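Exam revision sheet. Question 4 asks you to relate a sequence to its structure. Input first:
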Amino acid sequence: MPSSLRFVLHRWSVRVQGAPETVAHVENITIPGPGGEIPLRIYTPEGSGPFPILMYFHGGGWVLGNLSVRDNTCHFFANTVGCIVISVDYRLAPKHKFPSAVEDAYTATQWAAEYGGDINGDASRIAVGGDSAGGNLAAVVCLMAQDRGGPPLVFQVLAYPATNLATLETNSYRNFARGYGLTKSHVKWFRKQYLPDEKDRKNPYASPLLADDLSKVPPALVLTGEFDVVRDDGESYVGRLKEAGVSARYIRYADKGHMAYWITSSGRAGDAQYQMAFALQAAFQSKTTRLFKE
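Answer key, structure tokens:
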């Protein structure tokens, strides 16, 4: 791993980890997956339920991360939204290349739809979310659910997602290639680990922006930073969703790079996480898919 990337990831992990909030119950389980057991961590809030369910996929370039890296974030969403959060420890590259991560993410979502009632969840109200590579996986799970006939999903919430790995030649990649945390070179390295076969980079299950049809994916909230290399990926994805008739909202954080707006230096939730939480609450309570004013 490049030394500059090690530094960025160390600073990122120190910054995002704070003392997590307390939730009513946290449980680690494993479920059968296409490549072996998939570890899940289930966060349940106070209350009687049944609770809506958020499937959460951590970031880390499809190469790094585990159930602990977003532990405080999952505590926050469980308490603030009042939902069960299921964090998924999907397989990582380079040992497990594409499509291992997306198949694990989709399998875990299927499991929640089938067995959500066993954990006091409401399987009719499942949303997906994630940050960076996890945002990519969340978007792809929505596309898989559309293509494979389910499970039905009510919302997708994506923080600085990579949505097109076929090209790194957008304006944001050119303008913010260095000096803003995550660099273009970092993304190239991650992509090589996850998608060494160039033809796979055009697969919509790697690059959901390239999907022919997005008309039946759930409504979305997408957040990016002004100086983030993947900013244009998120912005373009929202444009495609709206063109397909999907209700979507886009928030760009001014003067921020990749992850810089995600959480405050104290380890407490920042504005981005509250925006995500409010949107999830609205989606779980809504009787319509037209969540946002166009």
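Marking note for examiners. Residues 3-285 form a domain with the Rossmann fold fold (CATH 3.40.50.1820).
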